[in-house]
Specification:
Blueprint lengths: L17 E3 L13 E7 L4 H17 L4 E7 L9 H10 L6 E3 L4 H5 L7 E5 L5 E6 L4 H12 L27 E2 L21 E4 L2 E3 L4 E3 L4 E7 L3 E7 L7 E7 L17 E4 L3 E7 L8 E7 L5 E7 L1
Parallel strand pairs: 2-3
Antiparallel strand pairs: 1-4, 2-5, 5-6, 7-17, 8-11, 9-10, 10-17, 11-16, 12-15, 12-17, 13-14, 13-16
């Protein structure tokens, strides 16, 4: 481990606005521990695909002296809601300390720019390794083992749901925001014939800076995609409301290609402010296809498509 560079020192978490799963921690209190700081936000598919590894490391190396600290820095407005974060922490089995970084104070202290981002500090508080984005799991775990003085095999977590790694060989559709500030490839409000990675709205919508909001009694969002998974960050009009919707692939119910937030007929209910998995294509069936989600009541808010 002596060959690892020193990349600075653990800045601390004074900028946090609250904590879940723990009283506030300081760099001084963490001396003698190897510390893995994980920047996340609960709707981020890139972070979700790292979660199985973070959880496995936390479980395997906790007794040897590893402390995982998951800094929750929100991207979307509803991710500032501590009740939403608390629900996500419970549902996703995040049982390590979580500083709430609603004002981006911890993000700035680390000079961070990414979800996800991992920083590993040694027992003296020196930062010795970082990983921006997905991947690098073996290298990161070897660093953890080296700093702990542990010799062991690497974890092989069972990955399910959002945690399943992207099918990169078949991934040809990019993350696409549905608000005016960041969107791309918007084909307008007449779906027509969409080209690959174009999206369109049908019905009475308002396109705001960070989202598209349905005003009418029924409306839809269509996307021409090429990927195994179709995910969509969306929200009902108020926390706790429930809106029915259904999804179609090439004009038909998804059947075996349904995601875990809909059934084989494509039926689902929008009742939470989070990422929803709507399509997971079976192996061997991936091609250019047109996805459509039809909302059956007003008020739905659609933020961002991601693919896997």
């Amino acid at each position: 481990m002596a060959s690892l560079p020193v990349e600075g020192h653990l800045p601390g978490f004074d900028g946090s606005t609250g904590w879940l799963n723990s009283a506030p921690l300081t760099p001084e209190a963490l001396r003698g521990k190897v510390v893995l700081v994980d920047f996340w936000t609960y709707t981020c598919i890139n972070w979700l695909r790292t979660l199985g590894y973070i959880r496995a490391w936390a479980e395997r190396y906790r007794e040897q002296g590893l402390v995982v600290v998951g800094v929750h820095t929100p991207e979307f407005p509803f991710e500032h809601d501590v009740d939403n974060v608390r629900e996500a922490v419970e549902a996703m089995k995040v049982d390590w300390p979580v500083p709430l970084d609603n004002d981006y104070g911890v993000w700035r202290a680390f000079d961070n720019h990414y979800w996800p981002a991992v920083y590993v500090a040694d027992t003296e508080g020196a930062l010795r390794h970082h990983q921006f984005g997905e991947g690098g799991y073996d290298e990161c775990e070897r660093v953890i083992q080296g700093l702990l003085g542990v010799e062991d095999g690497l974890v092989s977590p069972t990955l399910e749901g959002f945690e399943v790694q992207a099918d990169l060989a078949n991934l040809q559709s990019p993350e696409t925001y549905l608000g005016s500030e960041q969107t791309q490839n918007f084909a307008g409000t007449d779906e027509g014939e969409l080209r690959l990675n174009q999206w369109a709205l049908s019905g009475d919508w308002t396109i705001e800076g960070g989202k598209s909001v349905l005003n009418g009694a029924e409306g839809s969002v269509a996307f021409r995609f090429h990927a195994r998974d179709v995910n969509l960050v969306m929200s009902p009009p108020t926390r706790g409301a429930a809106l029915p919707f259904h999804v179609l692939v090439d004009g038909a119910p998804p059947g075996d290609a349904h995601g875990f937030d809909v059934d084989e007929d494509g039926r689902g209910t929008l009742a939470q402010q989070r990422l929803h998995q709507l399509i997971r294509e079976p192996t061997g069936s991936i091609a250019d296809r047109t996805f459509e989600i039809v909302f059956e009541a007003p008020g739905a808010e659609a933020y961002c498509f991601t693919f896997g």
